[in-house]
Amino acid sequence: MRDAGYTIRTMAQRCGMTAHTLRYYERVGLIQPVGRAHNGHRRYSDEDEAWLNFLHCMRATNMPIREMQRYAALRERGEESSLERRRILEEHRAVIAEQLAALERAHALLTHKIENYRAIEERIGLRRSAAVEAEPSPDMISA
């Protein structure tokens, strides 16, 4: 038992997760059972935080939970699994690269469309009247 460490609430805040997510990650094997204080409450270490930050990053990039579980299981085997873990990360990086390229294409298309609409607005004189309408009225400022 250890009384030192971070509470579940503190760790959740530090990692940008909820306490529910931390409990879920423990239940599905993404993290090993967390140490407990004398009162039975979870106490997270700095090492736990580093691992949770990695998991949070992977989840933010839409890595499937099953793939995260596979990676976590390999991690428990130690350095002998480094080749498999690297391959998982390389495959996921390739997926992210495809997503980034798709987002860049979408961004370029949106930018093009916005510029087209601005040109139309300039041509028909809507730019000035839209700007006047967008200005807050004195009533809105005091609200």
Explain this structure to me?
This protein has 143 residues and is mainly α. It has a domain at 1-76: Multidrug-efflux Transporter Regulator, Chain: A, Domain 2 (Orthogonal Bundle). 71% of the residues lie in helices and 0% in strands. The protein is built from seven helices and no strands. It has helices spanning 8-15, 19-27, 46-60, 65-76, 82-124, 126-134, 138-142. Helix 4 (65-76) packs antiparallel against helix 5. The chain is elongated.
Q: Which features does this protein show?
A:
mainly alpha; Multidrug-efflux Transporter Regulator, Chain: A, Domain 2; 7 helices
Shape: elongated
Determine Rg (CA atoms, Å): 24 Å
Separation, N- and C-terminal Cα atoms: 54 Å
Name of the top-level CATH class of the domain at 1-76: Mainly Alpha
Kindly report the CATH topology of the domain at 1-76: Multidrug-efflux Transporter Regulator, Chain: A, Domain 2
Q: Number of DSSP strands?
A: 0
Report the helical percentage: over 70%
H/E series: HHHHHHH
Roughly what fraction of the amino acids lie in strands? under 5%
Number of helices: 7
Specify the biggest β-sheet.
none
Q: So, CATH architecture of the domain at 1-76?
A: Orthogonal Bundle
Helix vs. strand class: mainly alpha
Indicate the low-confidence ranges by residue numbers. Answer: none
Query: Mean of residue pLDDT?
Result: 90
